[in-house]
Amino acid sequence: MFCEFDACAEPRIYRLVSQDQRSPRDLQKFDWATVSDEEVFVEQLLAAFDLDGAIVIENALSSVEAEAIVEEMRPFIDSTPHGLHGLEKSRRVGALVARSRASHKAIAHRAVLVLCDAALGGQYRFGNEVRIIQRERGQGRYPWRLGLTQIIDVGPSQERQGLHRGNGLWVHNFAGHKLELQIETMWALTDFTEANGATHVVLGSHRWSDVTDSDAERTMTWYEKSSFQTVRATMKAGSVLVWTGWTLHGAGANTTESRRVGMNIDYSLSFLSQEENQFLACPPEIARTLSDDMRRLIGYSQPAGALNYFADCLPPRYALRENYDVTVPGSHGMNSSKDL
Ligand SMILES: O=C(O)CCC(=O)C(=O)O
């Protein structure tokens, strides 16, 4: 997702890269259906992800599971106007956690969560730069959580989206900070082809000087439609493209008569704002029906120190208690701090 609010409206300028930084390679694809040794698989995923800033995991869901998500979301998709976010022939529909139980398998998919945990929790690319309060530099793990859930339904005649980096979202310019801020995914819920708008990705762009060096000479906008060489995330329904918040990417043009339905699920560091407010998208009355893991993943947790408490210094799980009412004194049921 790219940011669309005023604070980010001014184009950010970045350096044109030389031709030799543009990669002629294709996306590296991994088949989840054939994994026998998960540890080796994850090592390979991480190595490719580190090199290219994007990978595809095939068969992460079955086509039936992908279809079930579309089916559950169909009434919401069909009642959403086109163009709400600026792309005229597309529809974007969120709140997947609350609206589609079938989406939960994708949102909490083991392969994706393991990658997120290494990239965001462990900052495996920048480990020595980890600066956690009251820890030695390079020590500890950053908390992370779900940041966005969104069906991206690209209709016929939709033009290509400008190339951009997800990390343009955060208002603060993090270029040069050596921090992985978010991991983005695009699930193919229908087959993605070059003709129907498979996502464009610029391999290796997460390592360009405009993101690694905040003082790099800047001559190019993040959002500019550019001539950078891209690869296309063509994939069967049930596969998922995973990329870093620093990787240049954008939806392709749809020149077919059918719709390209994808599901964009992003994960970000817990001390950054969620792009899609999960507490509104999945309010307590729905969140309390979810598993503990899903509750934590969407943010009903106090991941570190005081971060994310509410009301009377309460951890968010209190908001999920059946009888809790923030306007009723004492409904937290605590007599002493030991009850927390
Ligand atoms: O739909 C796609 O393939 C990519 C969408 C995207 O990158 C975005 O909106 O930020």
Report the total helices.
9
Walk across the major sheet and give the strand order.
Answer: 2-3-10-6-12-5-4
Q: Helical residue percent? A: 10-25%
Largest sheet: 7 strands, mixed
Q: What share of residues are in beta strands? A: 15-25%
Averaged pLDDT: 89
Name of the CATH class: Mainly Beta
- The total domain count is 1
CATH architecture annotation name = Sandwich
Distance between the termini: 37 Å
Q: What is the fold-level CATH name, i.e. the topology? A: Jelly Rolls
- Specify the overall morphology: globular
CA radius of gyration is 20 Å
Going by CATH, the homologous superfamily would be q2cbj1_9rhob like domain
Low-confidence stretches: 1-22
Instruction: Please provide the count of β strands.
Output: 12
